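Final report, results section. Input specification for complex C-07:
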Amino acid sequence: LATIPPPPALLRPLNVPPRLMLGPGPSNVPPRIQAAGGLHLIGHMHPEMFQIMDDIKQGIQYSFQTQNNLTFAVSGSGHCAMETAIFNVVEKGDVVLVAVKGIWGERAGDIAERIGADVRYVSKPVGEGFTLKDVEKALAEHKPSLFFITHGESSSGVVQPLDGLGDLCHRYNCLLLVDSVASLGGAPIYMDKQGIDILYSGSQKVLNAPPGTAPISFSEAASKKMFGRKTKPPSLYVDIKWLANYWGCDGKPRIYHHTGPVTNFFTLREGLAVLAELGLERSWAVHQENALKLHKGVEALGLKLFVKDPALRLPTVTTISVPNGYEWKDITTFIMKNHAIEITGGLGPSAGKVLRIGLMGYNSTQVNVDRVLEALRDALQHCRKNKI
Ligand code: GLV
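Structure output:
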C-alpha cells in the first residue's frame, strides 16, 4: 500500500494566470508558436523530426548570419549552450579571458573555472561596454586561447559593439565566444562577417518560443580546436561529437544520443520561421523603434535610463535607474498585482540598481510600450516610500 497520499496540490486544477511578460525573458509565446507546442508528438529519431531539425539549423544559420556547418540547437536553456561552448572548446589549464560587465561574464568564468581552466577577467562597471583598446590590452596581457563576451547584456541593458573583435582575437591566436541570448533578432549580429567563432542564443527571448532550447554555432577554427582536443569533454550530454551527429552535421547516419525535446523543437522551428518571414533587418528596426519610444516615455516620467551612452542601449532590454524614494521590489510587485505585467529588478551586479523592461519579438509593440509606461506611472504614484 502507498502510505504517502496523493498531494492535494495536484488534485487542484493547474493555475497559469495570464501575464504580459515584459521582463528580460521569457517573453510571451504568440498563438502560432503556442499551437506548434500543442501538436502531437513524433519520435525524436523519426525522419520527419530530422527534417524539422534541419529546418531549425537553417533558421539558426540565417539568424546568426553564418554558413557554419556545425550549427544546431542544444536541448537546454542558454546556460546549457554556454556550457556546451566552454566544455567543448576549453581543456584543463587553457587560459580563458572573460569580459565581465554584468552577470553573464561572471557565469562564463564560473563554468570555465569548474573545469580547471586558467580563467582571467577583464571588467567594466555595470552599464558600460568594452572598447577594442580595452580588449586588445587584456589579450596582450593574458594571451588566452578563448575570449568570452556578451553581446546583449540583459543584466545591465548594454549592447556590446562587436565590429573588429573577431579580427583582433584572431591576431592574438584566440577564439571569440559571444553570448547573444538577449540580443539575437533584436540587434544586428553577423557571425561570419564579425569573425565570431562560437555564438549561442536562447529560444525564449526575441524568438518567442518557450525556454528549453538554445541555438549555437561553431566556426571552422572552433571545430578544429574541439575535434583536436586530447581529453574528452567533461559532459556526455553536451559532447560536441555526439551533438554533431544528432544534428546531422558529421555526414554520418544519426544514432541515438539523448531524447531531444521534440515539442520544444517544434516551437523553436516556428519562432525561427516567424523571424525568417519578417526578415532580420525589419526585426532589428522594430526593436530599435519601440525601444526608443520606451526610452522617451521613461524620461517623460522623470525617470533616468541606466545606460548613459545612447549607442550602447540594448534594444531588447531597457534598464532604468531605481528612482530615489522607491524600492525596486515595491514597483515590480505593484505592477504585477495591478497590471498583470512582469517587469523585473536587476541581476547580479545590477541588483538593487535598476528596473528592467524587455520588449522582445512579438512583445515589441507600441501598445506594449504604452501599457508598461502607464503601469510605471501608476506605480510611481503609489509606491513612494518617503518625500524627497
Ligand atoms: C535572464 O536572462 C535575465 O537577464 O534575467
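The mean pLDDT is 98. The two ends are 65 Å apart (CA to CA). This concludes the modelling results for the funded period.
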